[in-house]
Amino acid sequence: MTTFKSGRLYIIGAGFAGQTLANEIKSKGIFGEVVAFLDDDPEKIGRRIDALPVLGPIQDVARLLRLHPADEAIIAMPSASREHLETIYRVLKTSGFERIRILPGISQIIDGEAHLIQTRSIDPQDLLGRTPVTVNLRQSLRYLRGKRVLVTGAGGSIGSELCRQLLSAGAERLYLFGHGENSIYQIDRELKILQEEGVGEKAVLVPVIGDLKDRAYMDWIFAQLRADVVFHTAAYKHVPMMEENAVAAIENNLFGTDNLIAAAKRHAVKRFVHITTDKAVEPVSVYGISKFLCERLVLEAAQDMQKPLSGEPSFMVVRFGNVLGSRGSIMPLFQKQIEKGGPVTITHPDMRRWFMTIPEACSLVLKAGGVGENSGLYLLDMGEPVRIRDFAEQMIRFYGLEPEKDIRIQYIGLRPGERLGEKLIWDTERTLETNFDRILKLTEDSQTSPLDIKAIMEELRPVCYCNGEDPDKYRNSDVLRSILKKHIPEYGTTTPKQG
Question: Does the annotation count 485 as an active-site position?
């Protein structure tokens, strides 16, 4: 969402989404005056739609406009490709537009129901990376209609976007679970405003402040909420910070997930979807190890269900790589560095990562949650990895600056827990196509020696919890690291084995 200005508005795109926005702006009468549509469709150019002229082609007409300082452009082309959006953005900036807003992608627009409240200032994530896959949300979310849905980490980057899209699920209740009071307050407030403006359906929103690490509380709260479906996104995620707070990472991510699984099983949750990361593959960091062990926990819980019949509990895992724009990721860091004049800091010239937008990742997670099977391990197709140096240069140019000329790029070396490249699958895993675009299923070599996750957790327990018997182990990160290294030989290396 964005702060609205009052001035003259040009809507880029005279399709249904653009017309819907124009009608809403006109009906409210407080957000400025729509002057015209700009469009490239020759069948629309020269016509009038609700008394508004359609001007075009965009590239030719935009530079002829006599703009006022308060004039704004709203790009209402939710199905446009990344390349097309980048071209339009360049044209608008060159033509003198200082304020440019954009509607979300088509996967977040239900049956053409675009709303002004959904617009926001355009930023690099709208233009960088591949074009997101189109997911029919209303169809994908049918399995959640009338259900009680709980999202852990609802105030985080992934959790909050899941909640925005879940507004269209027709759920009876949407539980916003998190540890941080401010973040849960913010997403609760945002969702209620979206509902007031006609976005989605009228699910009852219930903010829940709680701590995954409190096993008794998790059991109690699940008894009260009677959730049908759980999307588990909550985790400590910042790799270098978790290396400095290793015990906290294991306590929160691993033991917290174990508490959540136990509560979900005890109180008959029908679907449990665990969100994991490429850093769980051949993990070299404490964060990565914690997520790898969590994957195993969830899949073991699924095995406990035997072979569930339709309607019986299903536990599944969805793995993907980096997402653009999440808190603590490189995009907001680069933005702040560029805004202060640089330098932009990169760990290594050859560092590469997979990237996906948060909305696309969440749409696919919601889809996988509906079509996934019990004990399923799913991978979102991330495309090709991107060199971080190239990404940084693209971001610098987004702000109308030149790399090295206007903004310097500085290499700072790998930080603890980081490596040059990530892997999406283990050497022992194989990918299988599914009937759904960009959702793959992973199978594991049956000859792989399984880890005894519960035994590892018992070794780690006296490090995370004071039991009075092993006081020297409590909060001792050296002991924790030695346990992890014993079971996960990759821990501490910087380059994954080649597949």
Answer: no
